[in-house]
TrEMBL record:
Keywords: DNA-binding, Transcription, Transcription regulation. The keyword tRNA-binding does not apply. InterPro entries: Bact_HTH_transcr_reg (IPR050679), Chorismate_lyase_/UTRA_dom_sf (IPR028978), Tscrpt_reg_HTH_GntR (IPR000524), UTRA (IPR011663), WH-like_DNA-bd_sf (IPR036388), WH_DNA-bd_sf (IPR036390). This is GntR family transcriptional regulator. Residues 6-74 form the HTH gntR-type domain. It comes from the Bacteria. PANTHER family: MANNOSYL-D-GLYCERATE TRANSPORT/METABOLISM SYSTEM REPRESSOR MNGR-RELATED, MANNOSYL-D-GLYCERATE TRANSPORT_METABOLISM SYSTEM REPRESSOR MNGR-RELATED.
């Protein structure tokens, strides 16, 4: 029986994977330079680069131009079917979820906001823009809109410290039942890049949806830009139900 020959780049890939395991590398740790790895294994640069390329295709490493090669961070996974808040999700995973308020206030509803919240054009809405962090790493930016007539005075609450949904339930006696949400791909703009700490133009998940109260009234319209390199979504239900936001 003829034994299948192992190609040089396949051997290089195995050496790289073994090196990562033996050194217990992870969470964005940097690999040695290409020159160091070539010298270590007496490998030519072209073969090594092909090995690195294939590991990149398998999403096990990533490259930063002018900096080097890094071990790929494990992505966080969220289920889109359910009303679990980001804070609750993080707690169930043993993660710490925090928020930084970028801006908030009361504005007039434009066509898109009024359509989603079923308001008259120009009616007052409360808006809240927050950057959400998981274990102190920026993960997403939320753009939240609520009908101000239903939640007057809500701008006085500290949403870096308090859960939005907790405030709605405790102080405004509003319970949330279900909603709808869509997922697509967007590209991070200059404003978002500054908070998410990634280059402008980086691909990201874009989710948008409306959450309804127990009477079927639209309560929240939210758009979220999430880092594609740190998050993935799963669907465990045929019915897409909006995620709650802590």
């Amino acid at each position: 029986m003829k034994i299948k020959e192992i190609m040089p780049h396949q051997e290089g890939r195995e050496r790289l994977e073994a090196y990562i395991l033996q050194n217990k590398m992870g969470n964005g740790q940097k690999l040695p330079t290409e020159r160091e790895l070539c010298d270590r294994w007496s490998m030519n640069r072209e073969t090594l680069r092909k090995s690195l390329y294939h590991l990149g295709l398998e999403d096990k490493i990533y490259s930063v131009q002018g900096s080097g090669n890094y071990v790929k961070k494990e992505k966080y996974e969220r289920n889109l079917a359910g009303l679990e808040s980001l804070t609750e999700w993080g707690r169930s995973k043993g993660l710490t979820v925090t928020a930084k308020v970028i801006s908030s206030g009361v504005i007039e509803a434009d066509k898109k906001i009024s359509r989603h919240l079923q308001l008259v054009l120009g009616e007052k809405v409360f808006f809240l823009v927050r950057c959400r962090y998981v274990n102190d790493e920026p993960l997403a930016i939320e753009y939240i809109y609520l009908p101000y007539s239903a939640f007057e005075g809500i701008e006085e609450f500290d949403f870096e410290r308090l859960s939005l949904y907790h405030v709605l339930e405790k102080y405004y006696h509003t319970s949330l039942k279900n909603g709808n949400e869509s997922v697509s791909i967007t590209y991070i703009d200059e404003f978002e890049a500054n908070f998410l700490q990634v280059p402008e133009g980086t691909a990201a998940f874009f989710t948008a949806g409306v959450v309804y109260d127990t009477e079927g009234k639209p309560t929240e319209y939210c758009k979220t830009v999430s880092r594609y390199d740190r998050l993935t979504f799963s669907f465990l239900s045929k019915e897409l139900i909006s995620r709650g936001r802590g």
